[in-house]
Amino acid sequence: MMVRLKQNPASVFGILGVYFLAQICVRLLLPHSLELDESAQIFYAQWPSLGYDTQPPFYNWVQTAVLTVVGTSVFSLALVKNTFLFLTYLFFGLAAMRMVRSKELAVVAVFGILTIPQLVFESQRDLTHSVAAVFASALFIFALVSTLDRPSWKSYAVLGLSVGIGFLSKYNFALLPAAAFLAVLFDTEFRRRLIDLRILIAALVASLVILPHALWLLNHLDLATQGTLNKLEGAGTSSKLLQIATGTASLFGALLGFAGLTFSIFLILYGRKLQETLGLDNRWSLLLGRIMLAAIGLLLLLILITDSTNIKDRWLSPIFPVLALYFATKLDQLDSRETSLLARIWPLAKFILVAMPLVMLLRVPAHGWLGDYTKLNLNYDAALQEASRHAPVEPTVILASDVHLAGNLRLLKPNTQVVVNGYRALTGPIERRESTLVLVMWRAQKESDMPDSARSWLAAAGEPRSYTGQTVAVPYNYGRDGDTFMFGYAFVWIDPKAP
């Protein structure tokens, strides 16, 4: 394989294609319970919308389209995620091939991205919107390099498309084009691309892509931003100086968490070679280095002018995958024709490509054996089957206590509407013109009674008849003998309200 990679560096994409197909197969072999982000995708897919909650809707739109065509299934979820991830590596790789003279170093850059924990593990485990944002980042870097190198109306159009997709994936994606703009300003040749009239094509395409959600955002600004602002602020601090110190420490902790492993691996594998490049740069290494520095500067400015104290490592995902590309462009400065640069990282890449599917496959049984249960260890199917045994007729609506539970139930009952109290902006006003049977389900591990939020939904839907709540103890997937999780359920007839 090493020989093939040297002779045809583009074959790295074939290797990655096989890898992501393996990851799809692994997800199908795992229990068909859902993680948080997975269940949200299934839940929201019931109502096509220009916006949903604190996250922009691009991933939802793509996932909903695939669910409509392919069907409501775990396969549809895995297919979308792994396609996005494959395209991420593809566009980063294509960008690297345009920036380096030695195409082997482009392969080194692609394998370097495999060392980022947020991409190689967390993205497979449960991320969705962040996965789309990293894809948009890769597309943006590819379009940026293409535009700076050989500008055309197509490259500007793709640049605008990537900005639009990025903004519709994660709002913090805006950090990348802002940092790239500042980086371009420092290069005399690159600055000319900013005053090229074709940049209006990029602006137009980005605006058209963003516009529908932007109109929704104007009327839902509090909903879209409040959750993120709360996470950024974290715990309150007693002084502005302490807030700045806490936020700065959080930022550098996030940098360490996101890029620390990649940085360390490149130092271990290429430390002496990188030392030789300390005084060497070309336009691409300078561009990527300035993008990362500008992003750090913008984040520090954010901390300074806001109350931000809690920067998460996954929020850096649109920016710092370029670290691997940066190291490749630095190594490309060497005059040496040494062929061992790819050979140094290939054993590690092979290990990751084989080990990660096995880790993903074994982690759920391992948690079960240890009694440290994850969301995939919960057996929603068994709980729903037990509840359905007592149904007088097939319920028209399933009312769940939370979105995570709702998504899991809709995966099992894709033809039944599944609702959660608090989402009437999506479902519309509740009007019952005839008696309706509702199956209410909630987590009864701590409280056996129906949650107040579910009672409120029932009261708003009509005149609920008397009902009796039940509980069912369900063994965990791969659980230890005797370990169970409690679900509560009730079948409630709702009559129309009297005029």
Condensed summary:
The protein has helices at residues 2-7, 11-29, 36-44, 58-70, 74-99, 103-113, 117-125, 129-149, 153-167, 175-185, 188-191, 199-219, 221-233, 240-276, 283-305, 322-331, 340-370, 380-388, 403-412, 424-427, 452-461, and strands spanning 397-400, 417-420, 436-443, 463-464, 470-475, 484-495.
Rg, nearest Å: 25 Å
Spans where pLDDT lies below 50 across 5 or more residues: none
How many domains make up the 3D coordinates? 2
Structural shape? globular
Helix content class: 55-70%
Oligomer state equals single chain
Q: What is the overall pLDDT average?
A: 92
The number of helical elements comes to: 21
Give a short account of the largest sheet. 6 strands, mixed
Organism: Rhizobium rhizophilum
Protein name: Glycosyltransferase RgtA/B/C/D-like domain-containing protein
Membrane topology: Multi-pass membrane protein
Pfam families: PMT_2
